[in-house]
Amino acid sequence: MKRLLEIIAKSLVDHPDEVVVTETENEKGILLQLKVNPQDMGKVIGKQGRTARSIRTLVKASASSDDKKIIVEIE
């Protein structure tokens, strides 16, 4: 899931070398934190958060077979 989020984010931004995804696992589930260049934030979030919502949906759908809760944070 970390790799999927990284691939999606790098394809959206102008500075793909500055995309950083960190994965933290605890008893509640898996937390994925996405950090991008501040100039690319608008591209990752999208109009009214539609792109961010779509990214979260794709990552959660790919993880549905693992039966773990996935949280995607964009910083």
Approximately how much beta-strand content do the residues carry?
Answer: 15-25%
Which percent bin holds the helix content?
Answer: 25-40%
The CATH level-2 architecture is identified as 2-Layer Sandwich
The helix-and-strand class reads alpha+beta
Count structural domains.
Answer: 1
Count the beta strands: 3
Biggest sheet: strands, sense, closure? Answer: 3 strands, mixed
CATH class bucket: Alpha Beta
Fill in the CATH topology: GMP Synthetase, Chain A, domain 3
End-to-end span in angstroms?
A: 18 Å
CATH superfamily: K homology (KH) domain
Order of helices and strands: HEEHHE
Task: Give me a quick take on this structure.
The chain has one domain (2-74): GMP Synthetase, Chain A, domain 3. The model has no long low-confidence stretch (mean pLDDT 91).
Reconstruct the topology from this structure.
Layout: H1 2-12, E1 20-25, E2 30-35, H2 41-45, H3 50-62, E3 70-74
Parallel strand pairs: 2-3
Antiparallel strand pairs: 1-2
Question: Can you offer a commentary on this structure?
Answer:
By secondary structure, the protein is of the alpha+beta class. The model has no long low-confidence stretch (mean pLDDT about 90). Strands 1-2-3 form a 3-stranded mixed β-sheet, with helices on one face. About 40% of the residues lie in helices and about 25% in strands. It has a single domain, classed as K homology (KH) domain (GMP Synthetase, Chain A, domain 3, 2-Layer Sandwich). The two termini are about 20 Å apart. It has helices spanning about 1-10, 40-45, 50-60; strands at about 20-25, 30-35, 70-75.
